[in-house]
Amino acid sequence: MNEHIKQAILDKIESYATIVVSRHIRPDGDAVGSTMGLVTMLRDTYPEKHIYLVDEDFSDYLSFCGNEDRVSDMVYPDALLIVIDTGTRNRISNSKYPLAKEIVKIDHHIEADPYGDLNWVEDFRSSACEMIADFAMTFRDRLKLSREAATYIYLGMVTDSDRFRFEGVTGETMRLAGYLLDRGIDTETLFSHLYVDDFETLRLKSFVYDHIRITENGVAYIYMSEEVQRQFGLTLEAASAVVGELSKIRGSLIWVAFIYNAEKQNIRVRLRSRFLGINDLAIKYHGGGHNMAAGATVFSEEEMFSLIGEADALLGEYKRTHEGWL
């Protein structure tokens, strides 16, 4: 798929002596895995090139994956910048991106901002890492895929699909995952990093289960106040991750986490759904993303409850007009 775009990207990579790779703000496993995987692949394949990973908002959650680079502004005018897993330019975690000579965008979100000189966007993919795996497999005779690089890419495929459970996972997804696993990934260690909880995390989950609220039609939601974040020592990213704990309630097909952002004086929103799309709702509230996994921002409790009301109406309509939902 998009063979000409992939070939054009590889040609660009081979034509530049300096390459900078970046991702989105508040990076998740897919953003970290796709960028670390590509950087490792390129460094192994082209040791003579200067290849940097620049992220101004690194994730503590995935600190075991390594650190970002510090790059002088003087590097950019002769550099190719590759931005992965970032739908819009205002979410690029590299404020110096306009300085780059050329930009390549690799992304799996619904296209809203084609900011690259080359744009490879496949919104049907389960993750950006799936695209990087496809890139590696397409050019397997030219790119070196080590176990380390494969592990980073597999990490993103696993986390963005919730271990291959979400919509968008296909036979091709699994074939690409198999290609990575054939590199000898230590899944036991990787999954221990990702899924073994410490005691404080279990206390947090207990709090979440005790404070979930359910609307009339089954929207599950929770508000993570500044006080709660302080009580459990949570970063914004860790507080946002609790949305996943709301997905296990029978009859609840939309779940929402509201996280107060003290720095920006607004409320970050994480929306997830099963069977019905919520991206249009996210767009209405200053956000967007995937059909069943999106983010938004609200600026008051009134706006927060307005979003909940619209989500409840959306879910109510879906239940009235569809059968077979759980």
In short:
This protein has helices at 3-15, 29-45, 128-138, 147-160, 171-181, 187-195, 199-211, 226-232, 236-240, 279-284, 301-321; strands spanning 18-22, 50-53, 80-84, 102-107, 118-121, 213-214, 219-224, 254-261, 266-273, 288-289, 293-298. It has 326 residues and is of the alpha/beta class. The chain has two domains: 3-194, Alpha-Beta Complex (inorganic pyrophosphatase (n-terminal core)); 200-321, Diaminopimelate Epimerase, Chain A, domain 1 (Roll).
SSE layout:
Layout: H1 3-15, E1 18-22, H2 29-45, E2 50-53, E3 80-84, E4 102-107, E5 118-121, H3 128-138, H4 147-160, H5 171-181, H6 187-195, H7 199-211, E6 213-214, E7 219-224, H8 226-232, H9 236-240, E8 254-261, E9 266-273, H10 279-284, E10 288-289, E11 293-298, H11 301-321
Parallel strand pairs: 1-2, 1-3, 3-4, 4-5, 7-8
Antiparallel strand pairs: 6-7, 8-9, 9-11, 10-11
Helix pairs in contact: 2-3, 2-4, 3-4, 3-5, 4-5
